Amino acid sequence: MKNCYLINFDIKGDERGSLVAIEQQKNISFEIKRIYYIFNTEKSFIRGKHAHRELNQVLICISGNCKIKVDSGKEIKIIELKERNQGLFIGQMIWREMFDFSADCVLLVLASEYYDEEEYIRDYDEFLKAVEQ
Ligand code: TYD
């Protein structure tokens, strides 16, 4: 899907365990201005339900697993995040919903911009209209 894809990060592993390193503009395409993480989630709740006009993000499930529905307005995909070295890039103007969180899920998000409620689109019809333009 245009503007939304999985990234496989290299695992630096040895007998002591595994390590993934993320460096802005090296293995992730933007400058990281903000990091947040979602935890203590309930399996039955859906999060997200919005798109961003400006923001690019990479989502990494660093514990447990969850599912992400991504919707470009033309195409919908459901992606399961469960691999520690896998990141889901979600660019501008992609509607996303996060659901089916395992009890131990910790979803780490790397974001290209500071938090700005103004650049959210939280209404699905408004999102579809904006995609058409
Ligand atoms: P919300 O957008 O509802 O989270 P999700 O996308 O997971 O559904 O955000 C939850 C609350 O956290 C809301 O009050 C806004 C606040 N928030 C910040 O203050 N900073 C941030 O970077 C983010 C992502 C959310």
Could you explain how this protein is built, in words?
The chain is globular and about 50 Å long. A hairpin with a 2-residue loop joins strand 2 and strand 3. It contains 1 helix and 12 strands, in the order ββββββββββββα. It has one domain: Jelly Rolls, CATH 2.60.120.10. The strands form 3 sheets. Strands 1-9-6-11-4 form a 5-stranded antiparallel β-sheet, with no helix packed on it. It has a 5-stranded antiparallel β-sheet with strand order 8-7-10-5-12. Thymidine-5'-diphosphate (TYD) binds next to strand 4 and strand 5.
Structural topology:
Elements: E1 4-8, E2 12-14, E3 17-19, E4 34-38, E5 47-52, E6 57-63, E7 66-71, E8 76-81, E9 86-90, E10 95-99, E11 106-111, E12 120-121, H1 124-132
Antiparallel strand pairs: 1-9, 2-3, 4-11, 5-10, 5-12, 6-9, 6-11, 7-8, 7-10
The structure holds thymidine-5'-diphosphate.
The largest sheet has its strands arranged as 1-9-6-11-4
SSE order: EEEEEEEEEEEEH
At the third CATH level, what is the topology name? Answer: Jelly Rolls
Q: What does the overall shape look like?
A: globular
Count of all domains: 1
Q: Identify low-pLDDT runs.
A: none
How many separate helices?
A: 1
CA-based gyration radius = 15 Å
What's the story with the biggest beta sheet? 5 strands, antiparallel
Q: Spell out which ligands are present.
A: thymidine-5'-diphosphate
Mean pLDDT value: 97
Oligomer state of the chains in this structure = single chain
Structural class of the helix and strand makeup?
mainly beta
At the fourth CATH level, what is the homologous superfamily?
Jelly Rolls
Kindly state the percentage of residues in helix. under 10%
Q: Measure the end-to-end span.
A: 19 Å
User: What is the CATH architecture descriptor?
Assistant: Sandwich
How many beta-strand elements?
A: 12
Q: Give the amount of beta strand, in percent.
A: 35-45%
